[in-house]
Specification:
36% of the residues lie in helices and 13% in strands. It has helices spanning 40-56, 60-77, 91-100, 119-127, 148-154, 177-186, 206-209, 235-238, 278-294, 296-317, 341-350, 372-384; strands at 28-29, 85-88, 110-114, 134-138, 159-163, 190-194, 213-217, 229-233, 333-337, 353-354, 356-358, 361-365. Helix 7 links the parallel strand 6 and strand 7. The longest helix is centred in the last third of the chain and has 22 residues, at 296-317. It binds pyridoxal-5'-phosphate.
Length: 390
């Protein structure tokens, strides 16, 4: 018997959920941009996977069911149809499969990438140079923003794909994906939004986002673990895309076990690959259920309040942020410029405050389980380390 079921209703972000996350008994956890905190429920889901393996060996049917549960849960999160969602093992696998479906040998061979893409997106784009692609970078202004005009200057009738991340993992900047997509569509290009740093913390709706593809995984604000990611593909686009990076779970009939041809599934399952990431499905589904139970709009509002408090406190300290101040240009991640970010992360870790670093910044990320006291504790500690703030 498996205990997993649909979401349990009614978690309120903030103090009410803290008891689900044991790490808060011993630390102030502000590092969801790297990995979401482990909940009791996600731990139980991993144990459920192990128990099933112990008791029954290969629970093949249940694994396939969990794969579909993950697809459905993710689809619900972004207001999509499950048939338009591929289940993958990473964003890298999803994006590689996607670009493998693009013809980059002709006139329309350009991939435009914002300077804030995650390394995997940039590296996959550049790998396509071996297939005839040209990669165009859209670089930020000195203040760190990437104005729309920069995208406008980079996207033209030679552009096949524009990669515009929702929230930058390195600066916390939030892009106006919709505006970029309007530009791209006017010039006949597709748009991929890597939303890893937003999913679960910001409400995302594929019906209004503007992008043609959305990708992200369960490691961060979705509260699961590594090995599970997704890609939503606009339904009316799916059949025109034939991935050459593929696998038997992308076939129109997995159980046909045929080696005679390539017959991709009619739905976005054509971007799936091999055996589903079974150990990651259990925690992934449990994490997404927890997020759904708290509701992303409620999480977003909660996180916004904490980010406002943090920014006000940083102003009082005279600190500089790499993250823009305007509400529409930021999400759950605030990057604080430091003269020595590694030393600052260490100094905070010594006080059991968990953060991370990228570039010249300390990364502080807020999620449903954070409370005002976490922000205040961090600000006090930053005050004691004022010399490390730029
Ligand atoms: C924006 C973004 N994209 C992608 C990834 C990871 O990609 P993958 O699932 O291929 O490891 C991360 C973080 O690990 C990320 O922050």
């Amino acid at each position: 018997m498996h205990a997993s079921s649909g979401p349990v209703r009614g978690l309120t972000p903030g103090a009410a959920v803290r008891s689900e996350f044991p790490i808060f008994e011993s630390a102030t956890y502000l590092n969801s941009c790297s990995q979401g905190a482990l909940s009791l429920r996600v731990r139980a889901a991993v144990q459920e996977w192990l128990a099933g393996w112990d008791e029954n060996g290969a629970e093949w049917d249940f694994w396939v069911e969990r794969n579909e549960a993950a697809r459905e849960r993710f689809a619900a999160l972004v207001h999509a149809e499950p048939d338009d969602v591929a289940v993958t093992t990473s964003v890298s696998q999803a994006v590689s499969a996607l670009v493998s479906a693009l013809d980059l040998s002709g006139e329309r061979n350009r991939i435009v990438i914002s300077e804030y893409e995650f390394p995997t997106v940039g590296q996959i784009a550049h790998a396509q140079e071996l297939r005839g692609a040209e990669v165009v970078h859209v670089r930020p202004e000195p203040d760190g923003r990437i104005p729309l005009e920069r995208f406008a200057a980079a996207i033209d009738e030679r552009t096949a794909l524009v990669c515009c991340t929702c929230v930058s993992f390195r600066s916390g900047h939030r892009h106006d994906v919709r505006a970029v997509a309007e530009l791209a569509h006017a010039r006949g290009a597709l748009v991929l939004a890597d939303c890893y740093q937003a999913l679960g913390a910001l409400e995302l709706d594929v019906r209004t986002l503007g992008a043609d593809m959305l990708t992200g995984g369960t490691v961060k604000y979705l509260l699961g673990t590594a090995g599970l990611a997704f890609m939503w593909v606009r339904g009316d686009l799916v059949r025109s895309l034939l991935p050459t990076q593929t696998g038997w779970f992308a076939d129109e009939d997995i159980f046909a076990m045929s080696i005679a041809d390539y017959s991709p599934h009619a739905s976005a399952r054509r971007f799936d690959s091999g055996t589903p990431p079974v150990p990651s499905l259990y925690p992934g589904v449990a994490g997404m259920e927890l997020v759904a139970e708290a509701s992303v709009p409620a999480i977003e509002a909660h996180v916004r309040g904490l980010v406002d408090r943090l920014l006000a406190g940083l102003d009082d300290l005279g600190a500089t942020t790499a993250t823009p101040r305007a509400e529409a240009e930021r999400g759950p991640l605030v990057c604080v410029v430091s003269t020595d970010p590694s030393a600052l992360v260490e100094a905070l870790a010594a006080e059991r405050i968990v953060t991370s670093t990228r570039d010249a910044s300390l990364r502080v990320s807020l999620h449903l389980y954070n409370v005002e006291e976490d922000v205040d504790r961090l600000l006090e500690a930053l005050g004691r380390n004022r010399a490390l703030l730029a």
